[in-house]
Amino acid sequence: MKRKILLSVLLTAATWSLSSLATAGWDTGPCPGGGTAPCIEAEVSGTTYHFNGSGDHAGEWHGLPTTGEDFEFSGATTWGCNGLNANCTWIWGVKIKKCQDQNDDWRIGLQVNSASMTGGFICGLLTWSGFPWYSKDVTNSSHCPFTDDCSNFTAYDATASSYTSNLGAIDHIILGAAPFENGHLHEVVFNPGTSANLVFDSQFYDCDDEDQGCSINGTLTVTNATSLDIQ
């Protein structure tokens, strides 16, 4: 009998621990509405989660509510570099943050922790590094550096349907050779909501905003969540 009770206690504790871990940083249920702080909401496997508009969980990078792993964004892209061209599927691992800058204004940041390409022969030769990459407000006069600094991120707007940022710093390697390092993309558009996506059509630039001879355009859509929204 004691063994059965002990086993029951252990199973209950394990279930509670796993459940707690799965939703760390998120609350179950939709955004409650109201308040001046942003509320970020995600639906995964039919369940809705949020970290709310009261300021809770601010300053923390959030991945999937169910596992804590990155949101996966994937889609068709057209890549070109120094005369080479290819149509590839680009896959990103992404986290999201809300935070307050030095003026206590709310901002939204994106962090890209991985990127890989699949597709034709050339796609398999392309690798990416320099992680994490960070979004940066396009209105900042200096496009570099790209750091985990709230003042760099895009200003929150309760009426906005999309958020536009520059994104870097990106290192690119082709068969062991780097056509550029510390590069960035201009005007990456994040469209939150159902089937949230990231849209870009840009050259890669260095910190002096000089073209690095490579470009990419495409749309990456979240694949491991039904939605990722900002309210």
Largest sheet: 8 strands, antiparallel, barrel
* Share of β-strand residues: over 45%
Structural classification = mainly beta
Shape: globular
Q: Residue share in helices?
A: under 10%
What number of domains? 1
H/E series = HEEEEEEEEEEEEEEE
Strand order within the widest beta sheet: 4-5-6-8-10-11-13-14
Q: Termini distance? A: 51 Å
Averaging pLDDT over every residue, what do you get?
A: 89
Count up the helices: 1
Radius of gyration: 20 Å
List the uncertain runs: 1-22
Tally of extended strands? Answer: 15
Keywords: Signal
Signal peptide: 1-22
Topology diagram in text:
Elements: H1 2-22, E1 27-28, E2 40-44, E3 47-51, E4 71-81, E5 84-100, E6 106-119, E7 126-129, E8 133-137, E9 154-155, E10 163-174, E11 177-191, E12 193-194, E13 197-205, E14 211-222, E15 227-230
Antiparallel strand pairs: 1-3, 2-3, 2-15, 4-5, 4-14, 5-6, 6-8, 6-9, 7-10, 8-10, 10-11, 11-13, 12-15, 13-14
Give a structural overview.
A hairpin with a 5-residue loop joins β5 (84-100) and β6. This protein has one helix at residues 2-22, and strands at 27-28, 40-44, 47-51, 71-81, 84-100, 106-119, 126-129, 133-137, 154-155, 163-174, 177-191, 193-194, 197-205, 211-222, 227-230. The strands form two sheets. Strands 4-5-6-8-10-11-13-14 form an eight-stranded antiparallel barrel. The protein has a five-stranded antiparallel sheet with strand order 1-3-2-15-12, with no helix packed on it. The N and C termini lie far apart (51 Å). By secondary structure, the protein is mainly beta. The protein is globular and about 50 Å long. The chain has one domain (26-230). Keywords: Signal. Residues 1-22 form the signal peptide.
